[in-house]
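User: Okay, second chain of the day. Same drill as before: sequence in, structure tokens out.
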Amino acid sequence: MTASLRAARWTPGGPARVGSASAVLRAAGAALAAAAVLLTATGSADTGTAWFSVRPTTPSADAPGPVALVPLAVGDRIELTHTHSVHRRPVYEVFSVSADAGLAMEEMRFDAHGANLPSGPETIGGVTTTFVRDGSGYVVDHHGRPIGTVRMVVGTADVDHRLAAGGREIRLLDLVGPGTVVELYVQAHRVAPSGE
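Assistant: Same drill. Structure tokens below.
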């Protein structure tokens, strides 16, 4: 396992959703393990104003809830990288944590055109992207377009989807199998001022 955080049937700020006694024990153990990793890695059990999470859209016995949890602050960036499945070149997608929208799309970078990659400016959800060719390839600026969540299919080892968030690298194939549909999302929470 990478430096990712694992939890089972646990939603930050919410109760554990479990059924049987064995499920309760598995969920409690996973939540304690995630808290221990978080405490060891950051020195705090709650360092951000949001949790960036990855969860399969169809929970299973192996992954009944979030498979990665990373504390972040509003404005922090999350980078998704992969090798394009057709033209075999790297693609970088950058998201940010939005207090109101969950995830916001910031930019996409790639060095060669490929299937389903933009070839010019697009208007999506009322926001027009800026398409620029620079010395290293193409940059598509999405101007912080609110997207909420990202659903994606985890690719095979040759695609190798990876996330970088909060100083951690998370290889999705270390968490779920290829072909698994996952959702990337942010759950913002209120940080109580001192003395509350």
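Residues 21-42 form the longest helix (22 residues).

User: Thanks, on to the next one.
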